């Protein structure tokens, strides 16, 4: 892979994931990338990142950024989920390549519009499903290749995110100096997207929305999308969702615990998700075949250097039980994405997390919500 050209990068959104992962990683990868501009509606976030990382060009709107004369080849979009599609299309129409944090969009129509912008402008739109770029995931696929799958268990039960972000070592800060109009716009988009995706009696296209649905949709597009996307990478899309259940928590507007069963040809996949008050990151995908159990075990990406492992259990020909732990690399998946993004832009190399691939996670979220048994 040639790295003779340095890609000029603008970062839109200077919050948690920018401060902990993306900006530091881009700065270290100076043989491939140079951050030339920052953009955020929070002036305080801009000032922090500008001073901390030595980036002088700052903007408070995407339009202002794109109309400037600052050199930009690639944009990292790390804004609120409900603005992702709009910002992607703006940047693509300006001829910029894009790395977009998941979820890429909120509605099926938004995915299609982003794909049209990708094709129309001939740009790379790389969706940051970093768990799918973990080296251990490829090792798992190699291990189960050609074997008949009997059962799959997908698990995402983690402690509150701030347990892990507080130990990232990046000294990130959080600010709330957002214009009141942006908060109002965000809340409006959340409700509009929810009605478009799930329907309501208000527009006569479906069932009445439950008070938990907004939180549920957000959770399925955030925490759940990591493992659901990785599940698709390993075993493909399910035929249908047979069953889904969510908890009745003390807060009647939230459901933190989920159980889901997907039907595949010849086997079923069980998905469980939850967020509790224990500082343990318990995220894994385990594939059961007749003679082996192969599990990829994830750890928090916010603490650098924690390995993603592969655990292989099998019965040996002599009857012995064997357990092998494979640690392919200590390099975190956020860092592993960078040369792939570079290669896609510079050398036109194909990549797997395109807009229409990401669309499948919203399709899965809709399948889950349609199969809910409360």
Automatic annotation (TrEMBL):
Q: Which InterPro entries match?
A: Gfo/Idh/MocA-like_OxRdtase_N, NAD(P)-bd_dom_sf
Q: Which SUPFAM superfamilies match?
A: NAD(P)-binding Rossmann-fold domains
Give the Pfam families listed for this entry: GFO_IDH_MocA
Q: Which residues form the Gfo/Idh/MocA-like oxidoreductase N-terminal domain?
A: 7-129
Gene3D superfamilies from the xrefs?
NAD(P)-binding Rossmann-like Domain
Could you tell me what this protein is called? Answer: Gfo/Idh/MocA-like oxidoreductase N-terminal domain-containing protein
């Amino acid at each position: 892979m040639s790295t003779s050209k340095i890609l000029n990068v603008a970062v839109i959104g200077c919050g948690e994931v920018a401060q902990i992962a993306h900006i530091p990683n881009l700065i270290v990868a100076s043989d491939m990338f140079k951050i030339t501009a920052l953009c955020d509606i929070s002036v305080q976030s801009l000032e922090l990142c500008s001073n901390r990382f030595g980036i002088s060009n700052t903007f408070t709107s995407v339009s202002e950024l794109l109309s400037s004369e600052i050199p930009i080849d690639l944009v990292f979009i790390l804004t609120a989920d409900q603005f992702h599609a709009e910002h992607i299309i703006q940047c693509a129409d300006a001829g910029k390549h894009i790395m977009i944090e998941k979820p890429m969009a909120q509605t099926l129509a938004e995915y299609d519009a982003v794909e049209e912008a990708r094709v129309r402008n001939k740009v790379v739109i790389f969706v940051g499903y970093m768990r799918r770029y973990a080296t251990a995931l490829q090792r798992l696929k190699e291990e189960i290749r050609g074997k008949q799958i009997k059962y799959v268990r997908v698990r995402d039960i983690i402690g509150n995110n701030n347990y892990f972000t507080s130990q990232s070592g990046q000294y990130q800060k959080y600010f709330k100096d957002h214009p009141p109009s942006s908060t109002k716009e965000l809340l409006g988009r959340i409700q509009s997207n929810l009605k478009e995706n799930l329907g309501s009696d208000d527009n006569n296209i479906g069932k009445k929305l439950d008070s938990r649905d907004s939180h549920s949709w957000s959770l399925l597009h955030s925490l759940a999308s990591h493992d659901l996307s990785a599940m698709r990478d390993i075993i493909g899309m399910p035929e249908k969702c047979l069953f889904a259940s969510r908890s009745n928590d003390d807060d009647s507007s939230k459901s933190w615990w989920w159980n889901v069963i997907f039907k595949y040809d010849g086997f079923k996949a069980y998905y469980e998700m939850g967020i509790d008050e224990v500082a343990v990151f318990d995220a894994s995908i385990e594939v059961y075949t007749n003679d082996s159990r192969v599990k990829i075990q994830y750890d928090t990406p916010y603490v650098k250097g924690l390995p993603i492992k592969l655990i292989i259990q099998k019965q040996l020909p002599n009857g012995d039980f064997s357990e092998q732990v494979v640690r392919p690399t200590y390099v975190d998946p956020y860092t592993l994405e960078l040369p792939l993004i570079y290669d896609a832009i510079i050398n036109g190399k194909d990549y797997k997390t395109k807009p229409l691939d990401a669309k499948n996670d919203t399709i899965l979220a809709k399948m889950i919500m349609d199969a809910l048994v409360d």
